[in-house]
Amino acid sequence: MAANVSLGKRAWLVFILGTISATGPLSIDLYLPALPQMTQSLHTQASLVQLSLSACLIGLAVGQLISGPLSDKYGRKLPLMIGFIAFALVSLLIAATHSVYFLIGLRFVQGLAGASGQVLSRAIASDLFSGPLLTRFYSLLSAVNGIFPVVSPVIGGYIIQYVAWQGVFILLAVIGCLVALAIWLGVKETLPAAKRIAGNPINSVWEMLGLLKNGKFVKLVIGSGLIYGGLFSYISASSFVFQNYFHMSVSSFGFLYAVNGIGIAIGSAVPGILATKVSETRQIHVVLTTTLLSALALTISWFVFNNLITAIGLVLLIVLQFGMLFTLTTSVIMNLSMKNSGGISALLGLSQNAIGGVMSPLVGIMGSQTYLPMAVSITVCIGISLWLFTQIKSSPST
Length: 398
Hints:
The protein is mainly alpha-helical. Helix content is 81%, strand content 0%.
């Protein structure tokens, strides 16, 4: 990391940026246990309440295309402040709504606002660090970020035991206010005026879209998005696989899901340890290869060693490698020597959310009574990602 950043400041940056980047996913994971209660309270169908989840995911994807370019024009701090103030206000409006249709619309807006944290945490890190130092920082950031999906459903489930589902969104409003206050008091602007994109704000958007002319960048972004596609294949199918197919109890599955979440967090930290010894590009090729082999083993196991222990072991191995790949691909892409890191981060986030969003229902369509569709989906996503990365001749970080 940068020599002029003290250990205390590094720790604070890791904590605050980890929290900022997790607020979007937090708005999804925290309310999952409340979905049945919300269906009853709003006198509607479960499918409509579940549509609010899709609306938030779409908002998170679209919002990155807004906050990323704007940050390249106006700096990082102002869009972050506006995003989290809006996040808090919309969370309060959701808590007050009595209509599932208003819920769906407000969840989309909440995703738009929460997206600022995801896209700008990456941009701020790339403003401050580069090379192996950036990989180390992203390792720590991803490890902190990985904790939230593990604890969020537990916290959400605990809340609805004592209060109505509205309490979850009131908590999100409080978190939004606290994060906005922390940004105001504890985060300095990291993009000097001299490095911002000049002219009309629309110029920032055109600069971002211009990145799509760079073939190497497009391959990197799609390759990273496919890794998220593999992750979402696991997330969307895991409850059906382990609870319906293997007949695990809800509490046992919750424990397993938490263990896998910790595995992702641990995997995210590994590239930082290896950063000064093995190049990020080399690590990506090796880990993509081993992940593909693991996914193939999971696919073959359905025909040969179809049992719970085998599935648990191989899935844990796969998600641990996912954690490594998230850190590595993010670092390589954000290390690209381009001035509009906000736009780079936005397109990276869009690819991840879009491909992940497509793979989730696709795995369900393929079938939920077996883990074969999940295994095949992960194998295909990782296989194509590996092919894309092998097409890049020169080091992406140069």
